[in-house]
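User: Could you write out the 3D structure of this protein bound to magnesium ion? I've included everything you need below.
Assistant: Certainly. Input first, then the structure.
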Amino acid sequence: MSQVQLRDVTKTYGGNQIIHGVSVQIEDGEFVVLVGPSGCGKSTLLRMIAGLEDICGGEVQIGTRVVNDVLAKDRDIAMVFQSYALYPHMTVADNMAFSLKLKGMPKAERAKKVHKAADILGLGPLLDRYPRQMSGGQRQRVAMGRAIVRDPQVFLFDEPLSNLDAKLRVEMRTEIKALQHRLQTTTIYVTHDQIEAMTMADKIVVMRAGVVEQCDTPLNIYDHPDNMFVAAFIGSPSMNFVEGKIVMQGGKPTFASHDGVILPLSEDVQVKDGQPVVYGFRPEHIQLAGSDGIETRISVVEPTGSETMVFMEMGQSSITGVFRERVLEADGAPLFVRPDPARVHLFDPITTKCLG
Amino acid sequence: MTMTDTTMPASAPFKRQRKLPRLSRFVVHGVVVLFMASWLLPILALLVSSFRRQADTAASGWWWAFLRPNFTMQNYTLALDQLDIAGSLTTSVAIALPTTIITVLLSLIGAYALVRMQFRGRMALSLALVALLVTPPQITLVPLLKLYYTFGISGTIPGIWLYQVGFTLPFGVFLLRGFIASIPAELYEAAELDGASQLRIFRSVVMPLARPIMASLGLMAFLWSWNDLLTPLLFMGGSSHAAPVTVNLAGLANQTSQGQGPLMAATFLSVIIPLFLIVALQRYFVRGILGGAVKG
Amino acid sequence: MKDTMTLIPLLIVLGAIGIPVLVYAALGVGEGILRTFPPVLRRSARPWVWLSLPILLIVLILLYPVIDTIRTSFKNARVDDWVGLDNYLWAFSGTMLEVIGNNVLWLIAFPLCVVVLALITAVLFDKVKYEPFAVTIAVLPTAISFTAGAVIWGQMYSFQPAGMAQFGTINGFLSLFGIKPVAWLIEPVINNFALIFIAVWLQLGIATLILSSAIKNVGDDMVEAARLDGAGDFRVFFSIILPNILPSVLVVLTTMIIAALKVFDIVYVMTNGNFGTDVIANRLYYELFAMNNLGHASAIAVVLLITALPVALINIHQFRTEAGK
Ligand SMILES: Nc1ncnc2c1ncn2[C@@H]1O[C@H](COP(=O)(O)OP(=O)(O)O)[C@@H](O)[C@H]1O
Ligand SMILES: [Mg+2]
C-alpha cells in the first residue's frame, strides 16, 4: 500500500499529444476515480501508471520509487481490465494463482491465498470452472480475485463494469467499494460514468482531452465545479446554462438573459453591473412556484414515480427540471418555476471558469 | 465425425433447414451420392487391386474381383520384403515428424514476434513473407544442391528437414500470425502484469491457446512433408537410408517388372498414415484455415 | 541397412525432441542476454533475437537460392560465362512454347475446375443431413500424395486398343455401353485434362471445406430476407451467397493457382512429359539432370517465378488492405 504521484505526465502518439502534463497526488489507501468522456486519455494515463505504455514526459512515482523505467511486472500493481482478460485455458483457481506461481510461491501457500480471495468474492464453488463456463458477473469477480491475491501496492481498474448489465453494475459498484474499504489498498479506477465516480470515489479526477479539469472530493466537485465542463459533466441530468448579463436592481444583483428572462441571484455574489455571465443551475435545484415565478412552457414530462423530470422552454433556452411533486399539466402548458438562488453557479462566458 | 460442431457458426446453432420440393430433393441426393461414390471409387479400386492375385490383375479389371473373389496378401508381403516399403515408411516418418514439429515451433516463434513486438521493418518483413509464400520450389533447387554438396549434408535426413522447414516457414508464420493477432492484447498485458517474462508468456499463454491452430499447421506440414516427391528425389540421392515412400513409389511406377499388385499394395501402405491423420484431425483443419478467434 | 535401422529412431528423437528443445533453450539464452541490456535497447533488440532463426532459415532456403538462380539464368550451361538473355530466348521458343502453353492451361483450368466443383459440392452438401460424411469423403484424397494419386489414377485411365478387354476403370465402364476406349494419357489435349483432373480429385477437399464453412457463415437472416423478397434458389445463390463468400473463393483460387504453378509429381509419374503434356517444372528437372544445362534450368525456374508474381502481388495488396483496417 502506498501513495501514487503523477508529476507533469505527458504522452505523445506519433506527434499527437494525448496527455498534456497531468499532475495528481493520490494518498495511501485512497480510492481515486478518473472520469471523463470517451477518448479523453483516461485509459492511456492508467496504462502509463501500470507500465503498459511508455511515459513520454514527467514522472510517475509509486510509494517512494519513481517507476518511469521500471518494468510493468516489477511495479507491484494489479490491474482489472474492461474485458477481464482472463486466461481462457486456465481454471478460475489457476487464473488467480498464476502470478503467485510466477513469484515462486509454494503450492500450498498459493492454494491458501486463492481460497481466501475466493471466499471474499464468493467464488468458492467456481474454482474449477473455466472462464467460458461463467457469466459476465462471475468473470468480473475472477478478474478482481486475480488482482487481490497478489496483495499489490495499487489496484488499477479500467472501466471494469462496462460489460455488465445495469442491475449488476449497481451491485458490483457497492461491492468493489466495500472490498476496497476492507483491504485499504490504494485504488485508481477509470470510468466514463459520472455516477460510478460520484458513488465510489474518495476523490474524483475529472479529465478532458488529456487535461485534468478538476480534482476534489465528489461532493465538492458537485457543489463547486471549477468550470462549465465539470459542472455539465458531473450530475445527471446535466446542469442548465443560460447566457446573459448582471443587472443591478436597487443595489441587488439579478440576472437577465439575452432574451429578457430575469432570474434571481443571492445577494452576496461578487459581480459588477452589466457583467456578461453564464447562469448555471442544476435540474434538482429548481422549485415549482406560483404565478409569481418564472414562466416556462412544458415540452415533455417524464414521470419516474418518485420524481418528475420536465423539459421546458424558458424564453429561448431549453432547460430541465426535476421535481418531487407530480406535474400533471399537458405538454405545451405553462409552468411557473424558480431556481434556488443559493445554489446558482455563475461562469465567465469566455473562460468558462466559475466566478467567485 | 465431429464435423458438425466446428462447421456450424456460433451465431446460428440451429440451422433452419428448408424443405425442398420432392423432385429437387431427389436430384440433390442423387448428385451427392453419385459424387461420393465416384470420389471414393479410385481409392476402392486401389484397395481391391492390392489384394488381387498377379495373374488376375494381368487378365482383367479390378472390378472382376467382386464377381470372382480370389484375394491374397501376397502383394503386401512382396511390397514389404522386396520393395522395402517398411524401410521407406520409416524414412518418411523420420523426415516428416521432425519437419512438422520444428516447422510448427519456429512458425509460432516467428508469428509471435512479428505480431506482438513493435520494431522498425516489421511491415517490410511481413510483406516479404507474403511475397515468399508463392515461391515455386523449383527455383531454389540448383543453388541449394550446390550448397548441400559443399556442406556435405546432401543425402542426409537432417538436410531434408532443413529444406522443408525453411520452405514451409513463410506459410506457417502467415497462418499463425492471424491467430496470434486475434488473441486480445489485454491478455498478454495481464500476463505481463502478473509478472510473466516474454518467454513465459510464450510458453504459458500463447502455446496453450494456439494448440488447435498448431495442430492444423502440423497436419498440413506433415502432409506436405510426407507427400513431397521433389525434395527427397533431389536431396536424398546417394543416401544410405531407404528412399522415402514417394520416391520409392515414383520409381516403382516407372518400372513394370514387379507388376501392378505390389505397387498397389505399396501405394496403399503409403496413404494409410496420412488418411488416418486427416480423418482424425479434420476439424482442426477447418478451424485452422478459418482462424477461430480467442475469447477471454 | 542395419546401421540405418538403429540410426533412424535416433534421428527421429533428435529431430522431433532434441532440436525443438534446443531452439527453446536458445530463446532462453537470448532472453538472458537481453536482460543485461538497458530497457530501451532490450526492447528494440528482442524481436531480432526471436526472429533470428526463422529469418536465417528463410534467407538460406528461399532468398539466397532465388537470387542465385536469377544470376545463373544469365549464364551458360556450365555457369562459366555470361550469355545475356540467350536462355530466356530459348525458354520462349521451339518446344518450350508448348510447355509454357501447358502451364497456362494448368493455371487456368485447374483453379477454375476446383472452384466451380467446390461451390457445387458445398452448396449441395449443405442441403443433406449426411453432410459431415460427404465432406469427409471429399477430403480423403487431400491426404494422398501426388505420386500415390498418379499410381491410383494410372489404374483409372489404363487403356487397351479397341476390341481388347479393358482393365482401366473408366474405359471398362465405357465399354459396358459399347463406347470405344479412349487413350486418356496419350490423346493430345485430352491427356492434359486427364492429368488436371487427378489434381482436382486430390485438392478438391480443401476447397470444399473452406467454401462450405463460408457458406454456413452467411447469415440465415439474409437468406431468409431474400426468400421473403421472392428470390428463388439460384437467385439466392448468385445474389446473396456468392458475393458474401467471395473472399473465401479468392483464398481458394490463390491456393490452387500456387498448386498449379508447382505441378510436377503428377506429370513426372504419369507421362514424364511425353505426348505433349510437359510442364515447366518437369522440364526443369529434365534440363537439370538429363541435359546438365544449368543456364536453361535456371531461366525456366525464373519464368516460373515470374508467373507466380501476379499472385504474390495480389496477396501483398490483400495483406496491406487488411493490415490497414
Ligand atoms: N496506440 C495508440 N496510438 C494512437 N493514438 C492512440 C493510441 N491509443 C489511444 N490513442 C488515442 O488517445 C486518446 C485517448 O485514448 P484513451 O486513453 O483510450 O481514452 P479513454 O480511455 O479516456 O476513452 C484517444 O484519442 C485515442 O485515439
Ligand atoms: Mg478507455
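The pocket of adenosine-5'-diphosphate (ligand 1) is lined by residues A 13, 18, 36, 38-44 (CB under 6 Å).
User: Perfect, thank you.
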